[in-house]
Write a structure and sequence with these properties.
By secondary structure, the chain is mostly helical. 68% of the residues lie in helices and 0% in strands. Helix 1 packs across helix 2. The longest helix is centred in the C-terminal third of the chain and has 26 residues. The protein is extended and about 40 Å long. The mean pLDDT is 84.
Length: 57
């Protein structure tokens, strides 16, 4: 089974990294899983927002 994911990199501030670790631990996820979920949510929200703007035009 092929894995169709792509790795990306980002620079984050040390204090943000600690906060992400805490939030990920609270949800019992790895930091990378937690970030992936948040990115998927952000993309879905942006896509939904774009659709609302195009429908209103």
């Amino acid at each position: 089974m092929a894995n169709n994911t792509k790795m990306i990199g980002a620079r984050i501030k040390p204090d943000l990294e600690e906060r992400m670790k805490e939030l990920a631990a609270r949800e019992r996820r790895t930091v990378s899983d937690w970030i992936r979920c948040r990115l998927e949510d952000a993309v879905a929200a942006a896509t939904s927002s774009d659709q609302h703007h195009s429908e209103a035009a």
